[in-house]
Amino acid sequence: MELWSWFQRRLRSRENERFAGDLGQLVAGQIMQSPAGQTQQGQALAATANGIDSNTKIAHLNGNQWGFGWNAGILYELDKNNRYALTYRSEVKIDFKGNYSSDLNRAFNNYGLPIPTATGGATQSGYLTLNLPEMWEVSGYNRVDPQWAIHYSLAYTSWSQFQQLKATSTSGDTLFQKHEGFKDAYRIALGTTYYYDDNWTFRTGIAFDDSPVPAQNRSISIPDQDRFWLSAGTTYAF
């Protein structure tokens, strides 16, 4: 039986950018439907919103920060033909401090619109906490015949802790907020190895990777879905 553990650190460079798209038309419509739309100032702002270019940067946050975590595992070898393992990777929490800016007119901040905080192109401090999830994995290897072996694994990742991306200012005000709504996910894999002779070894496998992103929460920024993996390979020993 073997035990192992090691400490790890990660540098995350975070850069979030969001562009306007058709936001201008949506914001203009909301202003016109609100009491502010009945005022001259509100109507002027709605006209400004209608003129927002689709490539306007409505939110930009970047920063670098270290995060620390650890890995551990146990390997049990029943005999030379059968072994089993359990591994764990800890959660890594990263608190970003960076620069936030938005090209939107600051006047939009006065109307309670569901858009990122506008800075008129100016830069201010922004903070964002990112939790990278913990992961468990169990795996095994069994040589069932002198020429054949099977290997398998099941990994479970606690993505449900990632519910939103939220950046705040020094005073604690929300700069931008995006709902993610991830769920815990798993990955299951099964493979075979064929020992042709002392030199040639052939391997093949299949895996199913469960997406942590529910269908109703998929977006252009994270267009994830379930995946099947097929793999094959060979090695030659000299």
From TrEMBL:
GO CC field: cell outer membrane
Keyword Transmembrane included in the entry's annotation: yes
Compartments where located: Cell outer membrane
Molecular function terms from GO: long-chain fatty acid transporting porin activity
Keywords, comma-separated and alphabetical: Cell outer membrane, Lipid transport, Membrane, Signal, Transmembrane, Transmembrane beta strand, Transport
Topology in membrane: Multi-pass membrane protein
Gene3D superfamilies: Outer membrane protein transport protein (OMPP1/FadL/TodX) (2.40.160.60)
Major subcellular location class: membrane
Pfam families: Toluene_X (PF03349)
Family membership: Belongs to the OmpP1/FadL family.
Name of the featured protein: Long-chain fatty acid transport protein
Native source organism of the sequence: Escherichia coli
Taxon lineage: Bacteria, Pseudomonadati, Pseudomonadota, Gammaproteobacteria, Enterobacterales
